[in-house]
């Protein structure tokens, strides 16, 4: 069972970037469910929070949405019916916990394991562990202390302090913690007092990159080319592409400053900023609005009109073609985030043969050590960002080597490897079939049900600690229809 409360989560056509919290964790979760089903898992449910927002559409109201014959999204109502940013979810957690518990008690059997995504879901999972004895796996996706450090905040505000407190509990009570990189395991979780390193399993996410490998520059739709080039005085210049939500930690303003302060980049390149999707900037959430307004201000301050493209929207299906537009013109992708827990966009760019310049904070260190398709830079230095971009854009041999390496090496990040390790990690926590208690209280959750696949060593072995099982077991889980996972 997965629990993921943030953003606009739905089975298809997720509007990535529509809100600050509708990001890559949703894509990871949906692809994980699909890959686990392909590996033999028989039943899965994703529990998320229901809301009703006219601006966001009717898809997120309470109820059940089918993903496939063996997977579904279950939306549970909380105290408020409004869409809420992650910073405002804390007051909803008690009512969500009651709702989730009631849902679980109505099931014929409790799930073997809950997988909580982000701290708020970790809080719910800890409550279910208390009340029903269900172990849980925790994936942070991003951490509050890391955000505080990345944004160079001397003191955390109330919302961030609350988040950090919840993270401490979620980390401390988790039975397993799945992280995507060595940096996350050692440096980021090292900031938390409650971290038990023997519980940590480093398992880089799987990525479905087939859609990115199968396109060429000739496949880019004319409407997309026009949507980009209508902003540009000279579309023949080399494109620098950035693609992220308009939130501060992604540091799009830092990239724009680097571009604006580099004479060579201004003269020989264009900057393409796909900063989520927007309708009316004044109606955006406060953080999104502030970031977008700063991008417009900096474009004007550096007088970059005609050299910066800032399209209002794009569809998820456009993304491979956006990368390929830049790759086919000898461009580069830039991820200037202050900290990047993993770096999915770097892999998407790699699969398209688009070299990258990336922050050296977080998961990109691991990705570039494997894919070798670009440059790591200090995101706090506009000069370093500009120099990294110049090294790629204006050295054809270096660009070509990075392009070929990315296409060749990105296949390491496949779902088969990730799911094999993931299912072994989860199955070591599974207990005998437990019937749900008779009493009723409210609830919601995610359910995974299926057969065992065992391959990888346990997280304890990976960290050099004694294995509780004495080896890397092949766990056979029951195929009985009343067993949920």
UniProtKB/TrEMBL annotation:
Its EC number is 2.4.1.14. Signal peptide: none annotated. The keyword Transferase applies. Residues 459-485 are annotated as: Disordered. Residues 23-210 form the Glycosyltransferase subfamily 4-like N-terminal domain. SUPFAM superfamilies: UDP-Glycosyltransferase/glycogen phosphorylase. Pfam families: Glyco_transf_4, Glycos_transf_1. Keywords: Glycosyltransferase, Transferase. Belongs to the glycosyltransferase 1 family. This is sucrose-phosphate synthase. It comes from Parvularcula maris.
């Amino acid at each position: 069972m997965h629990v993921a409360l943030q953003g606009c989560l739905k089975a298809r056509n997720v509007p990535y970037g529509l809100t600050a919290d509708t990001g890559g964790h949703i894509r990871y979760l949906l692809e994980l469910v699909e890959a686990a089903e392909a590996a033999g898992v028989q039943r899965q449910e994703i529990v998320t929070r229901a809301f009703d927002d006219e601006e966001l559409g009717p898809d997120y109201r309470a109820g059940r949405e089918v993903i496939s014959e063996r997977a579904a999204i279950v939306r549970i109502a909380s105290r408020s019916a409004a869409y809420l940013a992650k910073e405002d979810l804390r007051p909803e957690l008690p009512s969500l916990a009651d709702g989730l518990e009631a849902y679980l008690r109505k099931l014929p059997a409790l799930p073997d394991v809950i997988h909580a995504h982000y701290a708020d879901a970790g809080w719910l999972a800890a409550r279910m562990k208390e009340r029903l004895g269900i172990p849980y796996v925790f994936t942070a996706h991003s951490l509050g202390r890391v955000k505080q450090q990345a944004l160079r905040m001397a003191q955390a505000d109330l919302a961030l302090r609350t988040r950090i407190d919840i993270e401490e509990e979620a980390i401390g009570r988790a039975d397993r913690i799945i992280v995507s990189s060595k940096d996350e395991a050692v440096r980021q979780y090292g900031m938390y007092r409650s971290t038990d390193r023997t519980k940590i399993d480093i398992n880089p996410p799987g990525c479905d990159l087939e859609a990115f490998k199968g396109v060429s520059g000739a496949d880019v739709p004319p409407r997309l080319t026009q949507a980009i080039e209508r902003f540009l005085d000279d579309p023949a210049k080399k494109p620098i592409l950035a693609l992220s939500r308009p939130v501060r930690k992604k540091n799009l303003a830092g990239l724009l400053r680097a571009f604006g302060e580099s004479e060579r980049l201004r003269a020989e390149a264009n900057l393409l900023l796909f900063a989520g999707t927007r309708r009316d900037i004044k109606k955006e959430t406060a953080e999104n609005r502030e970031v977008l307004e700063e991008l417009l201000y900096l474009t004007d301050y550096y007088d970059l009109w005609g050299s910066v493209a800032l399209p209002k929207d794009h569809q998820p299906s456009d993304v491979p073609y956006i990368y390929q537009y830049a790759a086919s013109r000898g461009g580069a992708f830039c991820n200037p985030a202050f900290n990047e827990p993993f770096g999915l966009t770097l892999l998407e760019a790699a699969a398209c043969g688009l070299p990258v310049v990336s922050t050296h904070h977080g998961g990109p260190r691991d990705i570039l050590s494997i894919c070798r398709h670009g440059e790591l830079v200090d995101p706090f230095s506009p000069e370093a960002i500009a120099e990294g971009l110049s090294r790629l854009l204006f050295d054809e041999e270096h660009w070509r080597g990075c392009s070929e390496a990315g296409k060749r090496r990105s296949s390491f990040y496949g779902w088969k490897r990730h799911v094999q390790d993931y299912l072994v990690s989860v199955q070591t926590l599974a207990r005998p079939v437990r019937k749900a208690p008779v009493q009723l209280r409210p609830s919601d959750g995610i359910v995974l049900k299926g057969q065992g696949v065992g391959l990888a060593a346990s997280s304890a072995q990976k960290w050099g600690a004694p294995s509780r099982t004495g080896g890397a077991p092949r766990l056979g889980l029951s195929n009985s229809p009343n067993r949920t996972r």
